[in-house]
Amino acid sequence: MPDPRIQCNICHESFTIDRFRFLVACGHGYCQECLRQIPRRHGTIVCPACRSEDRWEPRQIYVTFEEPMVPTLSVAEGVEKLVAYSPAASIGHALWMVKQEAYAVGSSYLLDAAQRVERHLAFASAALERNRLEVLEACKAMKSRLDEAESMRSEVVGLRTRLRDTNAKLETADTLLEDATARAEIERNKRFRLDMEVKKLEEALNKQAEKASPMRILRILWVSLFAHGCDIYISRECGAKFWELAIPLTPIRGVTLA
């Protein structure tokens, strides 16, 4: 008897059971080619049918199938016993038995398939609900992070605005400082030139004072007294020097010792 063939729910190809591997967590099986193409996350494989996670490697199972012809031997034997002269009722009953058995076998297959689909849908619905809750939690976390990022972005925009204002004020202060430094340098140069001019004038005056002799001073005083007839006041030291240098004269008008 040929080995029964099983259809893979992914590629919909039929294979013998030795080409199938079954997941330990949920029991669903797929062909080896499709299992190799299923992505793995952190060493786990997710079942395509029920979305359950399995950390074990898919396993091969070993089963002994029931001979499909055993329950139909009685019907086959009854058909074989029919001959050309058998009554029409016997022939009709044999055909009815064959149809009923075929209908029963087909119905059981359909029922099994429906039950399998229902189980798959139940597993898939539960897995989808879990995935939906996980996605909602992830979305909530992402929304919280987005709110924090938006708040930080607003703070960064405010800080950039304040930084631009501060830089503008610093540039203005630098300009004013440069102007003040330039004006101070100009005033310092002017003061230096004035100090140099005053120094030159003082040196010139000192030289002129060194050149002036007592007789010249006396002559100036004499001219001031007698030529112009003005009254002057001189200190006793100067007066003593004056009388010491001058020849005896008559009293001088307007000269008073201070």
Automatic annotation (TrEMBL):
It comes from the Eukaryota. PROSITE patterns: ZF_RING_1 (PS00518), ZF_RING_2 (PS50089). InterPro entries: Znf_RING (IPR001841), Znf_RING/FYVE/PHD (IPR013083), Znf_RING_CS (IPR017907). Residues 163-211 form a coiled coil. Residues 8-51 form the RING-type domain. One of its GO terms (molecular function) is zinc ion binding. Keywords: Coiled coil, Metal-binding, Zinc, Zinc-finger. Pfam families: zf-RING_5 (PF14634). This is RING-type domain-containing protein. It comes from Lyophyllum shimeji (Hon-shimeji).
